[in-house]
């Protein structure tokens, strides 16, 4: 399947991301298709080719030119939420080359968050494309707190509108972090999955608590002992570990270490990742009930970098 390709450099998106969102202009109410009650929502007319949005709301786009450029609306919710999208109006004729795509995650320069190894769905299952004038009744859902609407509307006067709602997620796995400073806990909930915490900017990462693999069985007991932090766990052939690293894009990340074990005390070391993307990745075999708590802060200008990526 040939998906829309939106070329956006990570630093460019990170700037808009940090600015954070274009705030809504007015408030109205709507009857969400999956609900019986009327709820308040924000109204937003999309005017920029690249928009970052973090509110529930009703968004509109109408093309003012015949430009065939592919644009994107990057939606981000809180870490413990998923994104639901419902298109209530579509006027994007297929014969003009118009197309709308819903992406389960974010796409930057053909690279996806979460990546293929960390997402429960295949690549094709993460894209839903549409064109024409028929209203789609399907509610499109993300698997994590990030989703993307890509669109190409090459005829003036055509456009679309859709509702965005955020739904509580009791088992968040992959998280796109919006704040520059925060504390998060990644868990696998006893499943054979990979979970990640990703920031689109350089950051310092400190491990506050670790319970991954060795000494952290599925059935915890009172005699469970702390092993301390074990390093280079992947090279030791251990199936469960935490990786810390980064890169200039969402693909081909460089990992500086892999750790595992049980340690309730904060690590003394702080990893300073001077890359466009910073990632903490929890790899789980399903044999253990894993959890890692990390603190993320902006880089200290006087700190020695643990990893530097070419710009």
From TrEMBL:
It comes from Aphis gossypii. One of its GO terms (molecular function) is corticotropin-releasing hormone binding. The keyword Heme does not apply. GO terms for cellular component: extracellular space. InterPro entries: CRF-bd (IPR008435), CRF-BP_C (IPR056178), CRF-BP_N (IPR056177), Sperma_CUB_dom_sf (IPR035914). Binds CRF and inactivates it. May prevent inappropriate pituitary-adrenal stimulation in pregnancy. Residues 48-164 form the Corticotropin-releasing factor binding protein N-terminal domain. The keyword ATP-binding does not apply. SUPFAM superfamilies: Spermadhesin, CUB domain. Keywords: Disulfide bond, Glycoprotein, Secreted, Signal. Its main location: secreted. Residues 1-18 form the signal peptide. It is found in: Secreted. One of its GO terms (biological process) is negative regulation of corticotropin secretion. Pfam families: CRF-BP_C (PF23541), CRF-BP_N (PF05428). Belongs to the CRF-binding protein family. Residues 193-295 form the Corticotropin-releasing factor binding protein C-terminal domain. This is Corticotropin-releasing factor-binding protein. PANTHER family: CORTICOTROPIN-RELEASING FACTOR-BINDING PROTEIN (PTHR10278:SF0).
